[in-house]
Amino acid sequence: MNRLLYLAGFAYIGLCATVVVRAVRARRPVTVMPVDPTPTPAPTPTVRPSGSSAEQWFAAIKPYCNPVEVEVQTRYNPAPGTSEGAGYSAACFALAGKIERARTIIDGMSANTRGAAANVLFNVAHPVADAGDDRASGPMMELVLDYWPNNYMALYHAGMSEYSLGQTALAEKHLRGFLAMYSQPDGFTNAARAALAKIEAGNAPVVPGLRPDAERAPPSRP
């Protein structure tokens, strides 16, 4: 009899414990973490810019190669101290229309490295000439010729720029120099010969406001 009472008591206690546990669980708040529907983007890989340090410098500085900003920007962010860097620095000033400043940069180099700087300058000036910007490309190509006089494409672009601006004496000199080095029957030679024919016939363009050839001062040399 006593054993049955014990068993019944234990069963009652177990039942009470189960009820209490269920009640506690029912009262415990369940925290639900919000789910962000936006997927986490993958990390962007680090891409090292291509080109030499001078090319990277010029790509960054080129938007500031204008008469207003070029001096300040190049002062605080100078070009690398190489012949290529000097060429790009000169090109930046030339693009800004500061031809004498560009000349000073190249003249400040050793004589055997000026040609490399002039090559960089030519590569920058060439697209400007191809785009038809005669006022900008002509002086740049003339500067190239000071250090690389047998560059026939610089002779052509300088001559055609000078022709379009009515500077006939310089145009004739450079276009004849071009034809002496380049004789392929293509658009370059045809354009050069047509310009020379108009100069000889006195039909070259006349641009008001530009100085005639005789008034142009020769470039300063060290």
What does this 3D model show about the protein?
The chain is an all-alpha fold. Among the domains are: 97 residues, no CATH class; 57 residues, no CATH class. The protein is 61% helix and 0% strand. The protein is built from ten helices and no strands. The longest helix is centred in the N-terminal third of the chain and has 26 residues. The N and C termini lie far apart (128 Å). The C terminus is likely disordered.
| N- to C-terminal distance | 128 Å
Q: Topology as H/E string?
A: HHHHHHHHHH
The main β sheet shows up as: none
| Uncertain spans | 28-49, 212-222
Radius of gyration: 39 Å
Share of helix among residues?
A: 55-70%
Number of strands: 0
Q: What percent of residues are in strands?
A: under 5%
The backbone outline, from C-alpha atoms, is elongated
Structural class: mainly alpha
Number of DSSP helices? 10
Mean pLDDT across residues? 79
Note the main attributes of this structure.
222 residues; disordered C terminus
Q: Quick summary of this structure?
A:
The protein has 222 residues and is mainly α. The chain has helices spanning 2-27, 53-61, 70-76, 83-95, 99-107, 114-130, 134-147, 152-164, 168-181, 187-200.
